[in-house]
Amino acid sequence: MGEGLEHGGRIIREWRGQRHEVEVVDGGYLWNGRRFKSLSPIAFEITGARWNGPRFFGLRPD
Question: For the chain: N or C, fewer Cβ within 10 A?
Answer without folding.
Answer: C
